[in-house]
Amino acid sequence: MDKVSGRLIVFFEAPFRVGVFECISEGKFSVCKVTFGAKLKDYEEYDVVLKNYYRLRFSPAEATDVKEAGRNRKRIQQEVRKQVQKVQNRSRC
Question: What is the C-alpha separation between 26 and 24, in angstroms, rounded?
Fold first, then answer.
């Protein structure tokens, strides 16, 4: 069975929030860009993704090298905590 990995990166591109989906399947990489809107909250973005993922139009797949990286579980937890704190700090401003 082939391993499939995906990632969603959300950033602010005035005046909207934009999401970039990255998908690697069978050694091929494809992306999709989604504009969420100006005032969506994180949980609303998540809901949009869950309900509409099957409708996304990904770019044509390009061959890529896939690296298997063994990462330390505790280091991953630290990185997630830092990212969550950054998001929380930005939302307070």
Answer: 7
Rounded Cα gap, residues 53 and 70, in angstroms: 28
Asked whether the predicted pLDDT for residue 83 surpasses 70, the reply is yes
Strand partners, 35: 18
40 pLDDT higher than 70: yes
Residue with tokens 């091929």: 28
Q: How confident is the model at residue 31 (pLDDT cuts 50, 70, 90)?
A: very high
Tokens linked to 64:
């890529």
Residue for token pair 């090298």 = 65
Task: From 50, 20, 23, 47, select the one nearest 35 (Cα to Cα).
Answer: 20
| pTM of this structure | 0.61
